[in-house]
Write a structure and sequence with these properties.
Largest sheet of chain B: 4 strands, antiparallel
Order of helices and strands of chain B: EHEEHEEEEHE
Distance between the termini of chain A: 21 Å
Oligomer: heterodimer
Strand order of the largest sheet of chain B: 2-3-1-4
Helix content of chain B: 10-25%
Distance between the termini of chain B: 26 Å
Number of strands of chain B: 8
CATH class of the largest domain in chain B: Alpha Beta
Shape of chain B: elongated
Number of strands of chain A: 28
Radius of gyration of chain A: 22 Å
Radius of gyration of chain B: 17 Å
CATH architecture of the largest domain in chain B: 2-Layer Sandwich
Chain lengths: 392, 133
């Protein structure tokens, strides 16, 4: 490598207020102007961002002990059940959990107005949330029922722990059937009437480090408006590549992150309960990763633009629900962002599910934190599994 | 002459009358149907724009047919604090009142183009689109 720098060197420059930081959007122009080598010499860190619905999110809670003590067997927060089989006053609230009274899809398509993700948003917005718990009672934990209004500040801990977030890439969803369908990718009109995608493209964290050369256990990140960490690979972490047949270009495909952070320092702007009509509830999460420019190779991937990154087109009317593979080709993020793609020879309007303006804001915020010296890079103690040799 | 937006409500016994024909032929009004949910022998609603100098006479004709006529007062507004500018609504807005501005990818809302079809209210994942009465 012509350019080489270490995490330690970058952090020294951050502490001295001298680090050069660009967002993943800004660095594209810089590389076009000055080339990879020169840009790699000048830039220490590239910041990324994404903000969209991310299922497989949730919250570990410890409520503190009641008087008399209680071994909570069942727990509800604003009538949304949380899993209490952890310890006496610990629980885990999942983002997609619904109230037992929710009509779900009995009046199809259901609205799913309030679920676990909405409770998380209410907690982080410092709203009062009703805790209800039941138990069978024991000698050391005699209490059997409990009800209390709690807030984020009145409980011991609230740790956001999302087992699978920040999908490297995601399908561009269409519907080839004759009926409108309601999916977690939004409402899809019949006869390929629209296409829905959900990635921030050139700002998307894992698309900008497809070989996982810098991301690992201990990477410090922007999470929900506060600081968080990559703690493991996400579930269903299948790093690999997707090849666009027309251009022959490769795009990262299926990597994911498990992330963790203290909810008490997060912000409701970046954790938003979502309702997907006909599907269910979830949580929109804001995540940003810093990519340290350790060498020119890391920069080469970090500087990929929407024109060079692709989403696979998937039929949510048939192939997806039936777990059948079907090659409908790819669409570049540049095409998707223009708002129209070609599928089976037809021009199809394309709209996003994840917010590009918010992704820009996250990458910009992370850049400012680093420039101010508030945010040092976490050097991974172990990198996440990258693509295998056969994947490239 | 600016078009006026009105909401018509049909009772079950008035829903099969050919009112558009009369509005155009006898009152010389330009009719632009924005939304219609009409089934024979059932209650129905229609949202339309009417343009023409004999507007008041046309409205009187509608009322004589037993049709309830209201100006379009219901309004869809965007809760700016809740909107995350994801863009999911823009695929479903029939008049492009909701649209994505490029290259910023911000979602814009032009209330003048809104026909209160309420599709956005249904599809917005964060309930940012609200009905104001």
């Amino acid at each position: 490598m012509i350019v080489e720098r270490t995490y330690k060197e970058i952090n020294e420059r951050i502490k001295a207020g001298k680090a050069v930081v660009l967002t993943a959007e800004e660095v594209i122009g810089k590389v076009k102007e000055k080339g990879i080598i020169q840009t790699a010499k000048e830039v220490d860190v590239v910041t990324t961002g994404t903000f969209g619905p991310m299922c497989s999110s949730g919250l570990f809670l410890n409520f503190g002990h009641t008087k008399p003590r209680m071994r909570m067997s069942k727990v509800w927060l604003n009538e949304i059940p949380a899993y209490a089989g952890i310890a006496a006053v610990d629980a885990f609230l999942g983002a997609t959990e619904l109230s037992e009274q929710d009509p779900c899809n009995t009046n199809y398509p259901g609205e799913f107005r309030y679920g676990g993700g909405h409770v998380i948003e209410d907690l982080v917005a410092r709203k009062t949330v009703k805790l209800r718990a039941t138990s069978y009672g024991t000698d050391c934990y005699p209490r059997r029922e409990y009800e209390k209004d709690i807030t984020l500040d009145s409980i011991n801990e609230a740790i956001l722990f999302n087992p699978r977030n920040c999908y490297q890439n995601y399908s561009c969803a269409i519907n080839t059937t004759e009926k409108t369908i309601h999916t977690y990718m939004g409402t899809l009109k019949p006869h390929i009437g629209n296409a829905s995608y959900s990635t921030s493209g050139q700002l998307s964290p894992l698309l900008k480090d497809p070989y996982f050369k810098t991301i690992g256990v201990g990477t410090r990140i922007f999470l929900g408006g506060g600081t968080g960490y990559v703690v493991w690979n996400g579930t269903q972490h299948f790093p690999g590549f997707l090849k666009d047949k027309e251009s022959g270009k490769l795009t990262g495909a299926g990597g994911t992150l498990a992330v963790l952070g203290d909810l008490k320092q997060m912000n409701a702007r970046w954790l938003r309960g979502v309702s997907m009509r006909g599907y269910g509830a979830s949580l929109a999460v804001g995540i940003g990763l810093p990519i340290p420019i350790l060498n020119e190779e890391v920069l080469e991937y970090a500087a990929k633009s929407d024109e060079e990154l692709y989403a696979p087109i998937v039929d949510y009317g048939d192939a997806y629900p039936n777990l059948r593979s079907e090659d409908l080709g790819c669409a570049s993020y540049a095409q998707l962002k223009k708002g129209s793609i070609k599928v089976k020879g037809k021009d199809v309007p394309a709209t996003p599910m994840s917010s590009y303006p918010r992704a820009v804001e996250i990458a910009g915020t992370l850049k400012k934190w680093i420039q101010k010296g508030d945010f040092l890079l976490g050097e991974p103690t172990q990198l996440l599994p990258g693509p295998g040799e056969n994947d490239c | 002459m600016a078009p006026k937006k009105i909401v018509l409500r049909f009772a079950a016994d008035t829903s099969d009358k050919p009112i558009i024909y009369h509005l155009a032929k006898e009152y010389d009004l330009m009719v632009n149907i924005l939304k219609a949910s009409i089934n024979p022998h059932k209650e129905g609603t229609m949202v339309m724009e009417l343009t023409g100098s004999r507007y008041e006479e046309g409205i009187e004709f509608l009322r004589q047919q037993g049709i309830t006529v209201h100006p379009l007062t219901q309004e869809v507004v965007r809760n700016e604090d809740r909107c995350t500018h994801c863009g999911a609504c823009t695929a479903h807005c029939p008049t492009n009142a909701l649209y994505i501005e490029r290259p910023s990818m911000e979602v814009k809302f032009n209330g003048d183009e809104c026909i209160v079809c309420l599709m956005c209210v249904d599809v917005c994942p964060v309930h940012a689109m609200e009905v104001k009465i």
